[in-house]
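User: Can you help me understand a structure? I only have the sequence.
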Amino acid sequence: IGAGGALGARALQQKKQEYSKGGLFKKKNNNQLNISDLDLIRNIITDSKGEVLFSKIVVMGEGPTEEILLSVLGSAYFGKSNFELGINFLGVGDNYSILHVLKFLKIKWFIFSDYDTPEVKSKLQALMRTYDIQEDCIIRLNNENTTKPLEEYLYDEGYEIELKLALKKVKEPKYYNEQHRIKKKEAVEIENLRIDGLSKEEFLKELKSWKVKAAKIYSQQILLRKNPDEKFPAKVRELFEKIQRSIEVELNQVEL
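Assistant: Let's start by predicting it. Here is the structure, written out as tokens:
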């Protein structure tokens, strides 16, 4: 384990010792969390180098693409780094076990859910019932009748150019030198024209294999939009506005 990993592991062990008597590692129905739950919590804490335990706000998304998008756009929206603000964006899949830790430590949290499959919708609804979660803590990309993954949501929001540019970038070969770049130029141009000509369905199917690598590129490209209102997709802006209100409430409480 590296230095960061060791820090995360020590932080987890310390918090576990401090809070186990108070029920941190018990579910609401008093059953112990299972091994996979604890492994996920441990991995999240280790990956964040223990920082998640000391966050002011944690946003749980479903995967690395959501985590990357929100991290990149979040820094731009708030004008500070996520670290400075004490915000952690996490990719947790559909396992929200870390919620037990956040609720116990009284860390403010939000869920940014793709809400794009019957299974995801069912699990989120069950989670809300179990923990009496209020709607204000949840951002859904889809409603009950739609099933768009993140990339399709962004495509339909008008970010086709940024998504296609990202795919072109990740598929572009690595050049050994300028001569190699010139040699590959025609092939790259042909490939780029092919990508431009793909239908929505064809493009999203191809992007799926590259989506994690493409996420940072299209997120940065979205921020280059000249219209400030277009720099943050509607659902992302909705999340950030809720975070902003939460930060303002905390600041007001400190001032009082």
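Now, to help you interpret it: The CA atoms of residues 75 and 110 lie 17 Å apart. The first helix runs from residue 3 to 19. Let me know which part you'd like to focus on.
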